[in-house]
Amino acid sequence: MKKALLALAVAASSATFIGAAQADEVKIGFLGGFTGPIESLTPPIFDGAQLAVQHVNEQGGILGGQTLVMPNADTTCADASAASNAADRMVNTENVTAIVGALCTGATVAAANNAAIPGGVVMVSPASTAPAVTDLDDNDLVFRTVPSDAFQGEMLARLLISKGITDAAVTYVNNDYGQGLANAFNETFEAEGGMVSANEAHEDGRADYRSELGSLSSGGSETLVVLAYADGSGQTILRQAYESGMFTQYVGADGMVGDSLVEAIGADVLEGMIATRPGSPDTPGTETFEALAAEADIDPSAVFAAQAYDAAFLLALAIEQNGSAEREGLSEALRSVSSAPGEQILPGEWEKAVELIAAGTEIDYEGASGSHEFDENGDVPGVVVEMLVEDGRFASQGFLDPEAL
Length: 405
Known about the structure:
Blueprint: H1 2-23, E1 25-32, H2 42-58, E2 67-69, E3 72-74, H3 80-93, E4 98-100, H4 105-119, E5 122-125, E6 142-144, H5 149-162, E7 167-173, H6 176-191, E8 195-202, H7 210-217, E9 223-227, H8 233-244, E10 249-252, H9 259-265, H10 267-270, E11 274-279, H11 284-295, H12 305-322, H13 330-338, E12 343-345, H14 350-358, E13 363-367, E14 370-371, E15 383-390, E16 393-399
Parallel strand pairs: 1-2, 1-3, 1-4, 4-5, 5-6, 7-8, 7-9, 9-10, 10-11, 12-13
Antiparallel strand pairs: 11-15, 13-14, 15-16
Helix pairs in contact: 2-12, 3-4, 5-6, 12-13
Keywords: Amino-acid transport, Signal, Transport
Protein name: Branched-chain amino acid transport system substrate-binding protein
Family: Belongs to the leucine-binding protein family.
């Protein structure tokens, strides 16, 4: 009997301890494509978000000294069921206050509709660029720190025209990302005097796209625009296009910008490939982030790393502003900490932000990837960077100026 009572006492004590430990944690989940067509792009994005968490904890923690933690789950990028299940675990098992992610648009839409919106959980995606995110009926719960592809597609089209490329074949992955980007590109390219000789969707994950390439090349274009993913169909299509000798110029967008693509296909093959990606404007926040990332041995120029840092840091600021780890009221707090007017907060300035919030002073976060003045749809303005494969890697050619193109 005494042993039984002792066991019960130990169990009760352990449960109390576990409950206390959990009560000392605030959770922001991360949804990423750790496997699938962007698996090589996801780790640096996750690193960016984790760096924000590190800064919070190193400077006293959140909500009076609690530890900020970031459980993560794999959406696979391409599987809506996997994304829904991953989000469900974050919302209903991990009981996160908010979510950074998802990354691929289809994963974000599935996660939002099936778990986050019903659970009242704010999501901030650092990488979902498709226009479909704008149209979500989300109760003001879904935001993003990256501009819509409606802008990137336009800028990519105008960039090609400025380089004298006026004839192109376009293939895009058959999902929200590919469709939205292709529509924006094609509309602008033709409006600016270009000709889209072929415009065809393709399914991700196949081993052979030679039939599609034959159709794409039938119009005689020498330029192939591939709007897909570096570790998925985009890589296979470029390899088979080169082997067929059908095209001489390759073009892509942000989903294709990864040095793993160049390594897989060959630097000599992709030398001169043109691409675009969302970038970070030249502001105090971007300069500060570059130094902080370099100190943490993180590549500050990695695709969407800065946007992920901002998503995580903004959510932490919103939780602090909201005064609790409760989900209710967080979207309003997020809009407050991200918008002028207010005392400027730069990346890494967590302790300063906490003091200002405690004093009742409004703050305005100026981020690693720009100023995030969310519009009514949770979208932000942004800038687009020209990328070019040079000497075996994607190298930035600078910001694209809409006025100059």
